Amino acid sequence: MQILDGKAAAQSIKDALKLDVAQLASNGREVPHLVAILVGTNGASETYVAAKVKACEEVGFKSTLIRFEESITAFRLLETIRELNGDPDVDGILVQLPLPAHISSEEIINAIDPSKDVDGFHPSTVGRLVLGQPTFIPATPYGIQLLLAHYKIETAGKHAVVIGRSNIVGRPMSILLSAAGPQGNATVTICHSHTKNLAEVCRSADIIIAALGRPGFVTADMVKEGAVVIDVGITRVDDPTRKRGYRIAGDVAFDEVSAKAGFITPVPGGVGPMTIAALLKNTFHACALKHY
Ligand code: GUN
């Protein structure tokens, strides 16, 4: 069994980006600028946004964090997005989800200029992905693609089972795996809460992508010997023995599954760092596109 070390793979991507940014700067060009919008004080969202901003700093990007109170109106948020859309100094706009219940995330995402949609959530960005003309690939599936590529894991002709059909991970992941091209050409099954015989479907998988948000859901009896297991879960589970009072749990029962899998991602240190590296790549791409 080999651990797919997302932290190391992400570092090599960041090192390459750092060189690209240094080159831009030495040519007197603007460096990429990511603006993240955070509404409210959701603990997990705070952590993710802080990690994104820190990663920007690491590679030499400019980043701006705009914070709003939980009580902000959709109108005010839309106004901010309109300003950022029109600001030539801004390359990427990211609105951290989830938003408070009184705001429609759909309405907000739809307002982002697709040329700055580095999260890849705008309907036109998703449409392009489906049609095989991607501009920005959502960061988590993109990060998984980059991780598979880093370890030269072949997907063509393989049976990939994606558990979870979210717009952020499962759905785009299934599209990418089934598309023509590198890290694609797989035969894909998407499983969700209505799937019958889920364990049996998983047992026939060469590649499992677990993205349902239920700690320890994938157990050893669901995994074929030698399978590639990618764990997208990042649920906070109470743990009084930890300093923060919680630990981060993946969707895969790591100890038992790792004894059977050929390749497996740890949590933390697997998909998480790759998601951030992918977001940085999208932001660099948004900046580069502006100059064509
Ligand atoms: N919430 C959970 N994942 C994501 C993500 O990839 N982007 C944003 N903006 N919010 C999220």
UniProtKB/TrEMBL annotation:
One Gene Ontology molecular-function label: methylenetetrahydrofolate dehydrogenase (NADP+) activity
UniProt-listed Enzyme Commission number(s): 1.5.1.5, 3.5.4.9
Domain Tetrahydrofolate dehydrogenase/cyclohydrolase catalytic: 4-119
Binding residues annotated for NADP(+), in chain numbering: G164, R165, S166, I234
Span of domain Tetrahydrofolate dehydrogenase/cyclohydrolase NAD(P)-binding: 138-288
PANTHER family according to UniProt: C-1-TETRAHYDROFOLATE SYNTHASE, CYTOPLASMIC (PTHR48099:SF5), C-1-TETRAHYDROFOLATE SYNTHASE, CYTOPLASMIC-RELATED (PTHR48099)
Function: Catalyzes the oxidation of 5,10-methylenetetrahydrofolate to 5,10-methenyltetrahydrofolate and then the hydrolysis of 5,10-methenyltetrahydrofolate to 10-formyltetrahydrofolate.
Descriptive protein name: Bifunctional protein FolD
Species assigned in the record: Flaviaesturariibacter aridisoli
Gene (UniProt): folD
